[in-house]
Amino acid sequence: MGNNIIQYNHTAFNFFLKNLSIQQQLQEQLLYLLTNSRLFKGFLSTSYPTTTTISRLYYPTSITYRYTVAMQLSNQLSLSPIEIAQQIFYFLKTQSNPDDQECSQLTLTMKLILPGWLDFEVREHTLACWLQSLGEKILFQSNSPKIFGKTDNLFFIEYTYARCCSLLRLGETEGVFIPQQKKLGHLTLPWKTPDPIPLLKNTDQLRLTDRAALALINQLLITVDKSVSNSSQSWYKLGTNLSKSILNFERHCRIFGDLAQNNPKLSQARLGLISISQRVLKWLWYSNLGNFPRSRL
């Protein structure tokens, strides 16, 4: 990937997260900016490709989305893909304020790639903000319930959800977090402190660097992106894959015991990731079945 980056052509690109999916919000923001720019105004509004122009790249060490609109518009504009991509790159560069560190505004690293791609890499600070937002933005709205021939297949997902609930109850007992004194509805995480979850070591370095933790974060991104985009992948498969990642994370990343005493922020960050994952599982279940999974089995 690195060999194809045009030298010096990378910069920050900021946008406000208004829904759960980074991929969907990025696509909507790019479409809005380009259709209202002098560069493409009056053309993109009628000729913008109907197929998805943002896709996720599955690199082992980074979370990257690729924008391929230049490749799709090349013939229509009678320009090479790299010429179109360069114009888009420098236009978008003027639309961002890289010094803004507000958590509501996500910052991606935008790179101009041969032969005409724009790659958007999610920064660690942005990843932490996105994870925190999952506990604040998720709404429980039911779609038409789907009927399964074998409802026993759902047990694994429900078991994982109940396991998350058990870990959260233990976290309260062990004093890893302080719970809310009263129910504040579905828009808050289940604890009063720490808030926010200490997912970062400093302003831009993720605290959760274990392979199992990164795999779970990656699966959360996949689950939300595909759920929001109405992907053909079934919610059951998404829920099963997320459940596997949650249990693998619990197996390899200790939360309680000596860790909670010696490194309380890491303990809180790991339990926070469990809480976020539990909330996404609950959202996925309720959105498709119209009821909530059991918190105890």
What does this structure look like?
Helix 7 packs parallel to helix 10. It contains ten helices and seven strands. The strands form two sheets. Strands 1-4-5-3-2 form a five-stranded antiparallel beta sheet, sandwiched between helices. It has 297 residues and is α+β, with helices and mostly antiparallel strands.
Features:
alpha+beta; two-stranded antiparallel sheet; 7 strands; Gyrase A, domain 2; single chain; Isoleucyl-tRNA Synthetase, Domain 1; 297 residues; five-stranded antiparallel sheet
What is the compact description of this entry?
With 297 residues, the protein is α+β, with helices and mostly antiparallel strands.
SS content category? alpha+beta
Provide the CATH architecture of the largest domain: Orthogonal Bundle
Instruction: Based on Cα principal axes, name the global outline.
Output: elongated
The main β sheet shows up as: 5 strands, antiparallel
Number of strands: 7
